[in-house]
Predict the structure of Alpha-glucoside transport system substrate-binding protein.
Amino acid sequence: MRSTSNTIRTRRTLRAAATLLAGALTLSLSACGSDDDKSSDGGATAEESGASVTLPKLDGKSLEVAAVWTGAEQANFKKVLAEFEKRTGAKVTFVPAQDPIINFLGSKVAGGQPPDVAMLPQPGAIKQAVDKGWAKPLGAAALKELQKNYSQGWQDIGKIGGKQYGVYYKAANKSLIWYNAKVFENAGASEPKTWAELLTTAQTVYDSGVTPFSVGGAEGWTLTDWFENVYLSQAGPEKYDQLAKHEIKWTDPSVKAALTTLAQVWGKKDYVAGGAVGALQTDFPASVTQTFSGGDQPKAGMVYEGDFAQVNIVQAGAKVGTDAKVFPFPAVGDSSPVVSGGDAAVILKDSEAAQALATFLASPEAATIQAKLGGYLSPNKNVPESAYPNPVQQKMAKALIAAGDDFRFDMSDQAPQAFGGTPGKGEWKALQDFLKNPTNVAGTQATLESGAAAAYGN
């Protein structure tokens, strides 16, 4: 357990980060940047990002990078890889992976063709890759770049058994609720700061004739994110850490309290678009787009998810800052939660080219390229705020860095993949069942504890 002084410091840091984020989100959001914000191809050149990282010449070398990213996220990352190719002479191929990526990699390893580098979205997956002997430690150059640009907390998440395996190239702020501005205007609804105010706002939206919430229940990870924000704010960071490590059981009263709180939304008749059945058939992208399409009569007025929802908002034909606005996840307890997620670059084939790519991805130059394209946050503390294409993303980035070593990483991503990251199993399945029957708090706790005990081996 942490000392009392550390717990108080952690609460203060979270509160400060939440306050900074709240201030950021009261700004009038702009669209995702103008042509003046970007280089001609939408990215930053090495010169613009103040290139300083030293990379070897790799003419004739080739390597593969696997990730589950699709759409704009994949396209933007490919621009980063293109800069690496330009600077080294190497040829990089992006390999689309499927969730859970650890299973995808297992099939590649079994076939003798693993990718050189994989972008792993869970610390639990990094540990599995290490335990299976797939992952290779970072070399001296990558370590030097990582230590120069990342806080100790972000370094430690990618460390297993005292060795550094992961470079957290991408981060996410998972403590946001996006809303249809026209729906709020028509309803006379205001941005809530507390959970009680959120319920009042939801009722106001409902009374105006629009379903309050869109929930992407077809993908269990969105439901774990709901739980984590409620739990962190209500139970506090110390309990959050204990549950993340399974040092306390899922039958703990703090879990009961969080599930009971969640049921105030999930179990409220007509508060979720399509009801539980409809939500369980709605994937994450659709949960966002159905909130911002349909004029002033969309399927829902609000949708919870991270900063990355901006990509889907734009795909819905809505303008961020005008049609779509956002507020921090409301405080259930003493302060609003700040939950982060991320994707780490992990080397599977230890070669000069793979080590060079890890080094590049640990540099501010690589992150700056993708930052300028929008829909992306980096935990790299040396990426300039000006690299982000609008004031809100700049403030989100600032809040992420300001949290320092006391941020809280997505809890399910810290768990073994079998419990926290597999479709149709573990925590994802248990919370999908809870969405279907939010009165079954005790049964859900028992199911969660059974799955966690098996996955953690205790």
Notes: Residues 35-173+340-409 form a domain with the D-Maltodextrin-Binding Protein; domain 2 fold (CATH 3.40.190.10). DSSP finds 21 helices and twelve strands in the chain.
